[in-house]
Write a structure and sequence with these properties.
It is built from 18 helices and seven strands. It is mainly α and 426 residues long. The longest helix has 23 residues.
């Protein structure tokens, strides 16, 4: 535009270096001020003028040693406002990130890996149940902390040719395994864990529950579940006269299938007992009687070698109309765990298991008998014995008698042994 200064005008208006002069520039500050229309100070001494002006209170009249106004201090309010805005924006951004982290990571390509690396650490037992397929196993592994994600393991399965077949069982694996390591571990039979329980002859239902409860970590079945299932004893197909599961759980060593419920475990033991009774020719109508007698023989008989004679004593007493007088039955009905009883306990007719005060058999078995006691009950030894008594608590020696006099003599022998061995409780 016509009114704009030229480059020559701009550069000619800049201060000259010290020592240089220009005919076009004012030769004194007085001339400079007169040329701009300002009121000039009546002095020819520049220094006093600069000093005097520096002292003036009017901020606009201050000048520096070059005759220029000093720079004003900048206020930083705008900076604090900006910082506050950034903080607020940062907090909001963080909230958005944590809320939508997976989506944001996916868009920006920051996605975390879906798989672990390596063979893992620690130990964990993983159970595969009947009917489970690959997707079920993938969920189980991720849920138990073996693999990082369901997807990592399942995608690996889809790439396998031929397809992987999983076998039910419990497997010893590790935490944080790669999908590849986990698959290899499941295929290795050395990692399969067998959950076994041993039920010895003469164990009670309470003892069975205790043993199964000790395996809860590997079976996933709690004591409470076992007790609830046992209380529902009528659901196991027992004879109508059975007052509980007692006597109907066959003693043996069992391998527990993974994923079994408490009821299923106990049903296995009951079914096994029925199988043995059927094999021995016991008809369903006689099951309760045979198991009740066999359970008393199991508890009272000591060594299995005496079972045949003990079973004969019960038959002889029943035939003679005599009470069985088994201390083991009295103790069971009184909540005891030994065959020792007191006079008061033996006189308690309210105890339905008391075979001293009540004639005939108790209302049910007092333990879970094994094959030897069952076979002895079915095929007792020939003899006329009506009595027997333990005479040596260490060896299990038992004396069988036909007459009361013989029996009383044997009882004295037992009492003498007890005096010699204080603290023995049977």
């Amino acid at each position: 535009m016509a009114d704009e200064p030229s480059w020559d005008d701009i550069f000619s208006s800049q201060p000259r270096p010290t020592g240089e002069s220009s005919d076009e520039a004012p030769r004194s500050r007085r001339e400079a001020r007169e040329s701009t229309g300002r009121r000039a100070t009546r002095t020819t001494d520049d220094a006093p003028v600069r000093h005097e002006r520096a002292k003036r209170g009017d901020r606009g009249d201050r000048v520096d040693e070059h005759g220029l106004p000093p720079r004003r201090k900048r206020k930083l309010t705008w900076l604090w406002v900006l910082l506050g805005i950034l903080v607020l924006l940062g907090g909001g951004a963080a909230a958005v990130f944590f809320t939508f982290e997976p989506q944001i990571r996916h868009v920006l390509g920051w996605e975390e890996p879906i798989d672990y690396t390596g063979a893992g650490t620690g130990k964990v037992v993983v159970t595969i149940t009947n009917g489970q397929i690959g997707s079920d196993v993938a969920k189980t592994l991720a849920g138990d902390g073996v693999t990082k994600t369901y997807t990592a393991f399942y995608k690996l399965l889809l790439r396998q040719n031929p397809p992987v077949e999983f076998h039910p069982g419990s497997y010893q694996l590790k935490k944080e395994m790669s999908a590849k390591s986990a698959l290899a571990a499941l295929a290795d039979p050395k990692n399969k864990v067998s959950t076994q329980v041993v039920l010895p002859e003469g164990i009670t239902v309470k003892g069975v529950i205790n043993r199964l409860a000790d395996l809860s970590e590997s079976t996933g079945v709690s004591r409470a579940q076992l007790e609830a299932a046992a209380a529902d004893y009528k659901s196991f197909g027992l004879p109508a006269e059975a007052p509980s599961l007692e006597g109907y759980l066959f003693p043996a060593t069992y391998s527990l299938d993974p994923g079994q419920t408490a009821h299923a475990m106990l049903q296995t033991f009951v079914s096994t007992m029925f199988q043995h009774l059927d094999a021995d020719g016991v008809v369903p109508a006689d099951r309760h009687k045979i198991l009740t007698l066999a359970s008393i023989t199991q508890k009272e008989g000591g060594s299995s070698a005496d079972f045949l004679k003990v079973a004969r004593v019960w038959d002889n007493r029943i035939a003679a109309g005599m009470p069985l007088q088994s201390d083991a039955t009295v103790s069971y009905g009184s909540g005891g765990t030994t065959i020792s009883t007191t006079n008061a306990q033996r006189a308690d007719k309210s105890n339905p298991y008391n075979t001293y005060a009540n004639p005939g058999l108790p209302i049910g078995p007092i333990c879970n008998p094994g094959d030897a006691a069952i076979k002895a009950t079915l095929h007792p030894a020939d003899g006329t014995w009506l009595f027997f008594v333990l005479v040596n608590g260490e060896t299990g020696e038992t004396v069988f008698s036909t007459t009361l006099a013989e029996h009383n003599a044997a009882v004295k022998q037992w009492q003498a042994w007890l005096r010699a061995h204080p603290g023995f409780d049977g």
